[in-house]
Amino acid sequence: GIMRKKAWAEAKPIYGGDDKEWFYFDSAGNALNRSGVYKINGNFYAFGEPVEAASPMLTGFVSLELPNGSDVLTDALGATALRPQRMTLAQWMNNVSEDVYYFDETPGDCIGALLKNTDITVNFLDNTCQIHIDATGRIANGYDASVKKYYRNGILMKASKDLGYEAIQVREYDVSKYVLLSADGTAVTEGIVSDNDGSYYCVNEGSIYKADASMLAPAEVITAFSQGADSIKIEANVYSVVVQNRSDNLFWIVLEKK
Q1: Sequence-distant (≥ 6) Cβ neighbours of residue 97 within 8 angstroms
Q2: Residue 132: beta bridge partners?
Q3: What angle (nearest 5°) sits at the alpha carbon of residue 38, between those of residues 140 and 119?
Q4: How far is CA 184 from the centre of its chain?
């Protein structure tokens, strides 16, 4: 047959099956035979473990084994295809590492190429979600300042629709903290908002203060607190405004009758 050089070839897997796989041949006519990521004609492609001395190209969500501290894709020591449609959402959120990238599954000239800045619909065993892919091609994690939203393993973090706003724990740069999120996932970074349950939140310099709906006059209390008051008069009674730390940067405001 004709020797292929710097070219792709499609073939059925040697171990059987109807789905064809793609292989790449280098300038010497040898098939790539190491699991990892290669840059070919300006695009990044992932390849799995070699079978009969040839590594198949991987598509979809791919977990990369990157050396500690490296974000250079071609440094990857290995690549493994993931199948989120065989997972529950909880398994995806809790068991998948952050070093997961997305390689185009769409048939055509760009199949297998790293995709960036896109959303992929995934049908988990128990849910259907959008997975956000960031500007590096990786599943989004942490804060995206351009849209003021937080992601975890590509899933948008947001408050429940019933509440409207919710303080949710996140990890950023390996530090645990709370952020106040709306039902569409927008992060509140300053000011006062109320949820649909009647509780009020004040966000100031990264700290979140909550006046629960069950307390007296939560709207008046949170306003007084935001203005620096340490006491407030409600229905002829004077109360001290006390701040209690619940966890990390989340605080609750309570009243103590003087």
Answers
A1: 63
A2: 119
A3: 25
A4: 15
Which residue, among 174, 157, 177, has the nearest Cα to 166 in the 3D structure? 157
Residue 130's pLDDT is 95
Report CA Rg, the chain.
25
pLDDT tens by residue, 88-105: 999 999 999 889 999 999
Max Cα-Cα span within the chain: 96
Q: Which of the residues in the chain have pLDDT under 50?
A: none
Give Cβ neighbours of residue 108 (< 8 Å, ≥ 6 apart). Answer: none
**DSSP per position, 188-245:** E-SEEEE-TTS-EEEEETTEEEEE-TTSSSHHHHHHHHHTT-SEEEETTEEEEEEEEE
Distance CA(88)–CA(90), nearest Å, equals 5
- Length, in residues, of the chain: 258
Q: Residue 165 has which token pair?
A: 């706003």
Which pLDDT score is estimated for 17?
Answer: 59
Q: How far is CA 180 from CA 24, 58, 81, 116, 193, in A?
A: 48, 38, 34, 27, 10
pTM of the model: 0.81
User: Beta 36-40 vs 43-47: how paired, if at all?
Assistant: antiparallel
List Cα–Cα distances, 207 to 29, 112, 160, 224, in angstroms.
60, 43, 21, 17
- Cα 196 to Cα 156, 167, 205, 208, 213: the distances in Å are 21, 13, 24, 17, 10
